[in-house]
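User: Show me an example of a complex going from sequences to structure tokens.

Assistant: Sure. Here are the input components:
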Amino acid sequence: MDCCVIPLRHGGLSLVQTTDFFYPLVEDPYMMGRIACANVLSDLYAMGITECDNMLMLLSVSQKMNDKDRERVMPLMIQGFRDAAEEGGTSVTGGQTVINPWIIVGGVASVVCQPNEFIMPDGAVPGDVLVLTKPLGTQVAVNAHQWLDQTERWNKIKLVVTREEVKEAYQEAMFSMATLNRTAAGLMHKFQAHAATDVTGFGLLGHANNLAAQQRNEVAFVIHNLPIIAKMAAISKACGNLFNLIQGTSAETSGGLLVCLPREQAAKFCSEMKSQSSAVGGQGAAGGAWIIGIVEKGDRRARIIDKPRIIEVPPRGSQAANQDNNSASPAPSPNLS
Amino acid sequence: MDCCVIPLRHGGLSLVQTTDFFYPLVEDPYMMGRIACANVLSDLYAMGITECDNMLMLLSVSQKMNDKDRERVMPLMIQGFRDAAEEGGTSVTGGQTVINPWIIVGGVASVVCQPNEFIMPDGAVPGDVLVLTKPLGTQVAVNAHQWLDQTERWNKIKLVVTREEVKEAYQEAMFSMATLNRTAAGLMHKFQAHAATDVTGFGLLGHANNLAAQQRNEVAFVIHNLPIIAKMAAISKACGNLFNLIQGTSAETSGGLLVCLPREQAAKFCSEMKSQSSAVGGQGAAGGAWIIGIVEKGDRRARIIDKPRIIEVPPRGSQAANQDNNSASPAPSPNLS
């Protein structure tokens, strides 16, 4: 499970909590703080929990930073983390900071819940539909962005992508990773989700496999479609499947929720994700939603079909996205700008 | 405060939680795990909380370790952490592990409490007595032990201490740091403690100052006695007060509780600490207890008097300790052996 669920001594309540920490992967410290917070909260959201009672922040300052860099970078990272926590309706009231060779950022999210507040991730039934709420390809985008300054690497992918496209994809990945999965968590209740997980280090297929393995019923998850940040599939292919993106095992950071929904609810879930996303501040600000597969009878494993359909997801704010959205001038996101 | 206390949406309950992580400071990985766990739980115990609903473990494996060392060291450290958690009546159900240049070990402790389960650390009144439940000097002992192999350093202290005494002090420090403050937390309720904190990185005086600053009444803490692991005061003096041990600012790891007790309760608190300590497995296994000072009217600060009395605390199991205890053969501690 994405969280631990501890039955408490008090009136049927449970303590649900999770922790996560890692190393910076984007250059903007403020956005990095937001991403770290979104990533921690995501484990609660994957259980359909929309509230968080408290967060702790885990930080390390790099011993290799000089005072000036430290004073410039760390407050921004902390502010990003706090702002994302506030957007999640919670706050950071404690934590620990140490000195370390590398910068570390992460946290702990805890909530005390009644049983109806969370959805145990084990109720998938044959006939369910699988929905994913953020596009894949964050790792590829972050790496490709670093390769802009590495001639040898860049030469491998420059035939399939422009510098501008890489920059747009990197921006899209950064915004996507900083997006809370909270809207999706709320809609899991409204549309009676049967199970969910969030997609992170093991990639879509890894987490789909974990989720399938936990199901009470003998089911299998079959994935037909892969929504991917535009051009990232081409990059992954151009460097000899270095990331295994199409194979489903490219790591994601603060990825979307993979949700099992009753067949008749899936389309409504997706359309409401879209409309809420526009409502909270422009295209994509609450994540997206794509139907990516189905639940069949099976041996509690997940697989991607041969030649899955790649859904190229245009960066928000790009011309393609605007056309796609039938909106000439989407409002900028107040949460992410 | 040592923990954050979050009022919950449910029936007067509060979520109390704390996190701490640091780098190994003793050579024995199993004991290091125990110390890390005792150190995390100590923040709950400082608030008089004796139960913990859940722990998460935070770990990093050093990238500089080879596979063999990793497989030998990390399981022992994890086991030590788990065993100490079990001794605290709780368990570890989650966490996060990363790769890092340095080893990190720590955790998160969380509990959902009714208001009568914790003691807010702000009720000291003039006339109260200050009690400390572990001897000081852990940092000095750990450093002196490293100096056994550093001729230049060793030469500075060899006139005041023998190699054997350093080894005994190191053992004592290790056992002391691995000792849970849980017994003391329970006795805080029985003897109506007015406030408490645990002594860690800022040393006795640093934490006494923090505690004094939080008091509702205008009080000052005056410290007369310093219980110190035997010979550590002499070592600190011999190296030119490098550690500021007598000045009260030598860092401690997983130190004792500093407790403000009503004058008429302090002696009973100390004697019960002693008898419970013997009961749970031999001398010192639940910590000790020393009256170290008094609470006066004042400006919410703490100070140590000129020429405080140094109480030399003999290592448990040493001849001096046995005589002191009137026990020819104290039972070995089942928890710490």
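The lines above are the inputs; the final block is the predicted structure for all two components together. The first helix of chain A runs from residue 29 to 45.
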